[in-house]
Design brief:
Elements lengths: L4 H10 L9 H18 L31 H5 L5 E2 L2 E2 L9
Antiparallel strand pairs: 1-2
């Protein structure tokens, strides 16, 4: 498929990209090469090729969904500037005045 400079102008307008007039010929050539390559792929016989749902055939291991506190209370609170009763101590954000 041949892309001309007018088509490049339309594509640039749709993509809201500013393309200088002296660059349109270059982009027309590049887009034509990309579309020619895509047309070559259409010539391949893929009738006996199974469909792919993913490029990686790994499955994630399943595990039980157990709720826990994590057991990291001391390690987490060691980073806090101030803690009390296994909780972060923060400044008041509501004034009861």
């Amino acid at each position: 498929m041949k892309i001309d400079e007018d088509t490049v102008t339309k594509i640039a307008k749709l993509a809201r990209i500013k393309v200088a007039d002296d660059e349109k010929a270059h982009y027309a050539k590049e887009l034509t090469a990309i579309l020619d390559w895509a047309e070559q792929l259409q010539e391949l016989n893929t009738d006996d090729t199974p469909m792919m749902t993913s490029v990686a055939y790994n499955t994630l291991p399943m595990r039980e969904d157990n709720v826990s506190d994590g057991g990291y209370t001391k390690e987490i609170l060691s980073n806090a500037p101030q803690s009390d009763f296994d909780c972060f101590v923060v400044p008041k954000v509501v004034d009861q005045g």
